[in-house]
Specification:
232 residues; alpha+beta; Jelly Rolls; Arc Repressor Mutant, subunit A; four-stranded antiparallel beta sheet
């Protein structure tokens, strides 16, 4: 890596509590690479050789079985992925691909495990990351099991609007096919759900979404702090 890239990587939240020597050891064997959209970064079942950290862009976590495929999560700048597989030295349980052109830091798994075992500050950071990931899984299970598809979509719209300044309009950050898989729907069900949201004053034109009556959409969504967090 170039010296300016190394300095940027040292400032990542992942390394803020780590000892300087441990950070240098982890970055010594790391790679900082740019990937075009749609490139697969890790494959379900492969050995966990690297911890991946998203520096720029968006990465889709997904899995497939026989003729089915589903989106499991979306990672953006500052997020790492496949941490549990790295810490346990186990195969990846999901695949990942770049949704957009992305810049990814790849830190060797052996270096991560060594620092985790010897650096209490770094270990605390990783433990918190794993705990947050676990809470995310519980939230997602509740979202999938306790809501209809229309309610999941309504809450996703409210959450994404809140993350973009609560202005009542935004553009889809990825294809609707990805959103359908993320929400546990078939694409045609997502299309019907968007049509149904017209009654709640949600307007969709291409990639643009306008929420004309937030109160009406919230009444449908019934946002819940222990599922959605941001807009409840």
């Amino acid at each position: 890596m170039r010296s300016q890239d190394l300095e940027e990587m040292r400032r990542l939240p992942l390394f803020q509590r780590a000892e300087a020597g441990q950070v240098e050891a982890m970055l010594r064997g790391a790679f900082l690479q740019r990937f075009p959209a749609h490139v697969e970064l890790v494959h379900d079942g492969d050995p966990a050789d690297f911890l991946h950290v998203v520096i720029e862009g968006t990465v889709e976590m997904f899995s497939s079985h026989r003729d089915r495929e589903t989106t499991l999560g979306i990672s953006g700048p500052g997020n790492n992925f496949v941490l549990a597989a790295v810490l346990l030295d186990r195969p990846y349980l999901q695949s990942a691909r770049a949704l957009t052109a992305s810049r990814i830091l790849m830190v060797p798994a052996d270096a991560i495990r060594q620092a985790f075992a010897t650096d209490a500050g770094f270990a605390r950071t990783l433990a918190e990351d794993v705990a947050m990931a676990y809470r995310g899984v519980v939230r997602e299970l509740k979202n999938q099991k306790l809501r209809s598809g229309l309610e999941r979509l309504a809450n996703w719209l409210l959450t994404h609007d809140a993350e973009n300044g609560a202005r009542g309009h935004f553009e889809f950050p990825f294809d609707k096919k990805v959103l359908a898989a993320r929400l546990g729907m078939a694409p045609e069900v997502l299309s019907r759900s968007f049509a149904a949201l017209g009654a709640y004053h949600v307007v969709v034109r291409g990639r643009c979404v306008t929420i004309q009556d937030v109160a009406a959409l919230r009444k449908l969504a019934h946002p819940c702090a222990t599922i959605d967090g941001t807009h409840a």
